[in-house]
Amino acid sequence: MTLRTDWLPALAAFEAAARHQNFAHAAEELHLTASAVSHHVRKLEAQLGVALFQRHARGVSLTIEGRRLADAASNAMADIDGVLLGLHGAREEQDRVRITTLHSLAYLWLVPRLPRFTAAHPGIRLDIDTESTLTRFDEGGPDLGIRYGLGHWPGLTALPLMDDALFPVASPSLAGLEEVHEAADIAKLPLISDHSYQGWQDWFRATGVRGARINERFSFSDTTDALMASVHGLGAVLARQQIATPYLANGSLVRLPGPSTPARFSYHVVYPAHRRLRPAARTFIDWVLEQPGQPD
């Protein structure tokens, strides 16, 4: 006997009734009446020529033949559910963009702008990884990254995003700030550094200050932590313009005397040169490349 498509409603009703051992509960699940479920089951029994349920005063119970069919129907429904979930998950994966970037840039530059992206593209999901190490773009890894450097990474396509500049900042409550009138005076303050490629020595040299005794009281591996230490009045920090802007805007940090010096590195959007970007990733790249020209 071959399964016919017109049997499917009856099989669905039977599978639910077998699982609940109750026609009324199966009807509630299927949004049918109990008599409709009973009709489907009797039709199936007539087509198969066997009794699938024993009817008695307390309800129904499966016969041996009914148990065999119930097990098979349950397994088949589970397989179909698994495929449907997989197909739905594959669709969701198409709309997911995995991004790797610096914690400081994500926290202070990217995240404040993301409401614009989600408003324009509500169906795209973002996974953002802020590991400090350079992530490998293996299969199953990130789709793209935002990196700070010279723009040359083997195997990666690099699109220029924005340049940066360095200048000193400090909390307006920092002790001794009232005595800072020119760049050379900053060396008298407790200084905070991070692990960037350009530090206080580079900045003082670029501004023409010679012989300054640099007192780096605190050093942090993460730029965000260095900025927060300065916000809390621990010292002056050499800030990157792109990530210091929120602190300057709310007044928790103020610029100190001295010029901005160009950063040696700049920000780039990168992705594997050999990999074809999915539409969602391309949409994010197109959007993020527009952001440096947008007001904060």
Describe the overall structure:
With about 300 residues, the chain is an alpha/beta fold. It has three domains: about 90 residues, Winged helix-like DNA-binding domain superfamily/Winged helix DNA-binding domain (Arc Repressor Mutant, subunit A); about 100 residues, Periplasmic binding protein-like II (D-Maltodextrin-Binding Protein, domain 2), CATH 3.40.190.10; about 100 residues, D-Maltodextrin-Binding Protein, domain 2, CATH 3.40.190.10. The protein is built from ten helices and 13 strands. Strands 7, 8, 9, 10, 11 and 12 form a six-stranded mixed beta sheet that branches. Strands 4-3-5-13-6 form a five-stranded mixed beta sheet. Strand 8, helix 7 and strand 9 form a beta-alpha-beta unit. The chain is elongated, with a radius of gyration of 33 Å. The termini are far apart. The mean pLDDT is about 85.
The gross shape turns out to be: elongated
Return the CATH class of the largest domain. Answer: Alpha Beta
In CATH terms, what is the architecture of the largest domain?
3-Layer(aba) Sandwich
Helical stretch tally? 10
Biggest β-sheet strands, sense, barrel? 6 strands, mixed
Cα distance spanning the termini: 69 Å
Average of pLDDT: 86
Order of helices and strands: HHHEEHEHHEEEEEHEHEHEEEH
Counted beta strands: 13
What would you report as the Rg, rounded to the nearest angstrom? 33 Å
Tell me the helix content. Answer: 40-55%
CATH fold-level name of the largest domain: D-Maltodextrin-Binding Protein, domain 2
Question: Considering the protein shown, what is the CATH homologous superfamily of the largest domain?
Answer: Periplasmic binding protein-like II
- Fraction in beta strands: 15-25%
Pfam families: HTH_1, LysR_substrate
Organism: Stigmatella ashevillensis
Keywords: DNA-binding, Transcription, Transcription regulation
Protein name: LysR substrate-binding domain-containing protein
